[in-house]
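User: Can you recover a sequence for this backbone? Please restate the input before giving your answer.

Assistant: Of course. Working from this structure:
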């Protein structure tokens, strides 16, 4: 499990550690790790042209100390000081003592010519996008020939949310200290970070190795304070441990039956795609209820179809409702039946528009909502752009309002439980997944995992993981249709289980 912590949590852990270390000791650790990654990025340090973009806080101090190390190894190091009078004094002295020099903030040419640009404008203390004086430097770094290494996080990215208000540095590599920050894992910030390298500076966040310990919410650190991760990203091994596997005594019913209430005369394809996902999600059988039975059977003859209402379809262990359902009376009846059932329900697409909030909140069994940003915006009375800017806040707000687990789709997929706790983030997707019907496949897949017995948070996050991985396998650099994603789900399972 990869975890990210809030800025407040990281700062508190830093304070505790700083008290135990000599003055400047923590920054020297950070700078040493940063210099190692810079050296790797350069390949050959001796004779390289290194430019440091130095802001007025400790982030600039890290850059200056790392620059001093590179200068001692024979690099030509120039520090562009954005506020010369406020630059980190000890860092600047170390750089000058090591033979480095300074340049004026207007000198974008030196940035353009550098082999390596180290972005130390702002770290976790940054607020808002880059200020105007820093923008030309960030642009020059992007346009120049050198590799860009961001210190702690790309300047201009909000550490807590990934929001980018205005411009931000585009890094090839980000060297982050002590713990991942949410802004490195959530778009748009994630898109600015490049490859993220975590440097251990000895912070104690109460996090041990292995997924079990990481998963304990409110795990206690040395000071006795509860430390809860802000975000969790499942890794291969975590997903492998969650996947339902048939045992010797399994039969199709014991593996779980998933019901799919989807499709309409107008949108039969959505039913076919949801069933396609459901058949590959680990349930032993898929029941289909609705008006697209002929289309479903034609493509997937193994489906148990019924043309009546979901309440007449027979026993299932979880329902998927919504894709292509439409909004007529029959759609409302189907949704009513499904919500009245005592099994977990995944609601997607039209079901999200039709559902009454109190009906969802009042359910005894778990509910998983899977909106994309547009659907989330209409549920929250907001607009799509705002949801995409502040995904973390949006998914938490929805989970709390609906008393349900919410999976917010998009370039970054986030899954939040109604009880709070760490939000899951999934990064296996690819922009090739932005294709019509891909969400229908996900709803079937995650619903099938629910029917097989996973809880809503695990079903959503393991489903999103497999879905993204399947898309990567299917696309492999070329456009794909949603059915290709469904076809590649077994490849993704094998990939995860191969560990
Ligand atoms: N704490 C520790 O133990 C350790 C911390 N470490 C390092 O310290 C970093 C945190 O340092 P920090 O707290 O000094 O804040 P930092 O990120 O440098 O930025 C604040 C400065 O930037 C300015 N500024 C703000 N917004 C801006 C904007 N949009 N555009 C431009 N400028 C802006 C703001 O100026 P002001 O608002 O006062 O005018 C203020 O002066 C952390 O990320 C890590 O790298 C490591 O060494 C490990 C040990
Ligand atoms: N830029 C992107 N990068 C990665 N995944 C994406 C991107 N855009 C969309 N997706 C994923 O593609 C799927 C699209 O689902 P959705 O928006 O519901 O489409 P549809 O309604 O056509 O099925 C979701 O799983 C979403 O997370
Ligand atoms: K930075």
């Amino acid at each position: 499990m990869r975890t990210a912590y809030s800025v407040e949590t990281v700062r508190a852990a830093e304070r505790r550690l700083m008290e135990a270390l000599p003055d400047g000791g923590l920054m020297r650790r950070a700078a040493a790790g940063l210099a190692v990654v810079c050296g790797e990025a350069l390949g050959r340090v001796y004779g390289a042209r290194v430019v440091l973009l130095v802001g007025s806080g400790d982030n600039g101090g890290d850059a200056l100390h790392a620059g001093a190390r590179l200068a001692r190894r024979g690099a030509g190091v120039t520090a562009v000081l954005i506020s010369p009078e406020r630059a980190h004094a000890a860092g600047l002295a170390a750089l000058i003592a090591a033979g480095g020099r300074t340049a004026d903030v207007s000198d974008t040419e030196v940035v353009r010519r550098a082999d390596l640009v180290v972005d130390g404008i702002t770290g976790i203390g940054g607020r808002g996008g880059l200020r105007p004086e820093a923008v030309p430097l960030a642009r020059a770094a992007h346009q120049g020939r050198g590799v860009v290494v961001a210190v702690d996080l790309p300047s201009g990215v909000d550490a807590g949310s990934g929001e980018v208000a205005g411009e931000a540095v585009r890094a090839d590599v980000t060297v982050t200290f002590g713990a991942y920050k949410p802004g490195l894992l959530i778009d748009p910030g994630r898109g600015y970070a490049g490859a993220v390298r975590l440097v251990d500076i000895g912070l104690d966040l109460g996090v041990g190795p292995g997924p079990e310990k990481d998963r304990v919410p409110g795990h206690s650190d040395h000071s006795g304070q509860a430390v809860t991760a802000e975000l969790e990203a499942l890794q291969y091994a975590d997903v492998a441990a969650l996947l339902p596997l048939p045992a010797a005594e399994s039969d199709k019913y014991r593996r779980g039956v998933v019901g799919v209430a989807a499709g309409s005369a107008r949108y039969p394809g959505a039913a076919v795609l949801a069933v396609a996902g459901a058949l590959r999600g680990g349930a032993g059988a898929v029941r289909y209820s609705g008006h697209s039975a002929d289309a479903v059977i034609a493509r997937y003859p193994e489906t148990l179809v019924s043309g009546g209402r979901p309440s007449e379809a027979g026993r299932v262990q979880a329902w998927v409702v919504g894709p292509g359902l439409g909004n007529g009376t029959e759609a409302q009846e189907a949704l009513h039946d499904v919500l009245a059932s005592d099994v977990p329900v995944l609601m997607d697409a039209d079901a999200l528009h039709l559902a009454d909030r109190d009906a969802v909140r009042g359910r005894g069994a778990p509910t998983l909502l899977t909106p994309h940003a547009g659907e989330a915006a209409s549920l929250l009375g907001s607009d799509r752009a705002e949801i995409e800017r502040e995904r973390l806040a949006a998914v938490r707000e929805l989970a709390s309002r609906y008393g349900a687990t919410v999976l917010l789709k998009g370039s970054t997929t986030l899954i939040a439980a109604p009880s709070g706790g760490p939000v899951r983030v999934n990064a296996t997707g690819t922009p090739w997944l932005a294709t019509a019907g891909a969400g229908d496949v996900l709803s079937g897949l995650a619903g099938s995992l629910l029917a097989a017995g996973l809880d809503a948070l695990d079903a959503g996050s393991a489903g999103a993981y497999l879905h993204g991985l399947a898309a990567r396998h299917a696309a492999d650099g070329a456009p794909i249709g949603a059915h290709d994603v469904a076809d590649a789900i077994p490849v993704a399972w094998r990939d995860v289980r191969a560990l």
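That completes the design. The CA atoms of residues 35 and 66 lie 5 Å apart.
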